[in-house]
Hints:
single chain, mainly beta, 4-stranded antiparallel beta sheet
Amino acid sequence: QVPLVESGGGSVQAxxxxxxxxxxxxxxxxxxxxxxxxxxxxxxxxxxxxxxTGSGLGIYADSVxxxxxxxxxxxxxxxxxxxxxxxxxxxxxxxxxxxxxAWPNRVDQxxxxxxxxxxxxxx
Length: 123
């Protein structure tokens, strides 16, 4: 088990910034893929950004490129969100999985999930 605990969500006006944190523990592998997903009401959960702890590299969904930055410091994963838009409003989830090949970008490719943190962006 890899417990994941998100924090940092909140309400902000359009154009503002928030930083989400995901504290992880119980690692049994030397590296993991870790991802941020989001789910708006009535919509499917979608991938926002993925980070590979083995390389320190991240990839982003087109909708958040140049606005969001994913990073890691020790056992905490971060998502810095800048220039927020109302369409970024969603519950944001942190996820992790051991490496099994290609970069995972689907919900079903992740083994561990946090409980989520709400982000609300008003216009």
